UniProtKB/TrEMBL annotation:
GO terms for biological process: D-serine catabolic process. It holds the Pfam family Ala_racemase_N. It comes from Sphingorhabdus wooponensis. Residues 265-372 form the D-serine dehydratase-like domain. Belongs to the DSD1 family. GO terms for molecular function: D-serine ammonia-lyase activity. This is DSD1 family PLP-dependent enzyme. It comes from the Bacteria.
Amino acid sequence: MRAATSPEAAQSRIGTLETPCLIIDAARMDRNIARLRDRLAPMGVPLRPHLKTAKSIEVAVRAMSSPQGPATVSTLKEAAFFAAAGVRDIIYAVGITPCKLAKVIELRQNGVDLAVILDTVEQAEAVALASRTSGEVIPALIEIDCDGHRSGVPPQDKDRLLSIGRAITQGGELRGVMTHAGGSYAARGATALRQAAETERRSVVDAANILRQAGLPCPVVSVGSTPTAHYATDLSGVTEVRAGVFVFFDLVMAGIGICEIDDIAMSVLATVIGHQREKGWILIDAGWMAMSQDRGTSKQQIDQGYGLVCDSAGTPFQDLILADANQEHGILKVRPGSNAALPELAIGDRVRILPNHACATGAQHRSYHIVHGTSDIVTNEWVRFTGW
């Protein structure tokens, strides 16, 4: 199964698209993917891309090392969608609940090596029971909390870790340990980012050693976040790296220092619909429904509002941001404190807005319109999916 490619999009131009819509610069995207692969290759650790941002088969086949995977997903709908396209090696990287195990079993019985994650004895017991009852052994990874960001077992909590591991093996398969260094999003500077990566690595390696010393299997030691993937200097003991937003990047990643503005491959195309000249406003037809309400740069050194404004070729205007947003209206303004001039944009002119958070902005749209570099030719339209 392949995603449909819209014939109407083939060889059309940016100026003819209905707005707002989502644009992907394929040249930037391919460069971003190659960059992370090339970085990990000398350390001998494979990439298991997280497809939650892309939600597109066309993007997935570029990010994965083979059409069969490996891949990471955040919903069972993603797992089913990519499985239907031939992906066979998947981790569902959100804590499992008993009500979802029937779907996991169904996918596994259809030939998908789908693994789940968990961090409690209750979840482990549910996985083991479902495995015994169905006759389909469900593999599970124990989630490790490496930085207090969200969920997981602290690596030093030996008793809890072993209790979960032993419960899984009463019918299920203990496949290993995994963690997500979500705290790395708050790190600033190369030293802090390298430390976050080492803390992430050490937490799962220590947890794996505890399990192995107790006679429990731990073949997979999985780490993952886009910041740590780009700053890790030592991946000893790690068997795979997971990352997702690196495919497109966004303004939050640029603010952390993981990428440059020129690396951001996703933008929202919008049309100028009005002016409030006395207020220094330009109005566009893209509000928070097109961009999302994510304000992830508001706590960073440079607040990008709802997004950074570029011309139709993708070149940023000086200090022009999407400063405010209603449902379908966006207000462009010069960044506070800047001496930049408001650009002369006429009614009907097109602009492209770089997003704060590629995952959240992508979720507002049903397809990607594909361009290459500064060309205004739209070569394809790739379908993406939403929901759970």
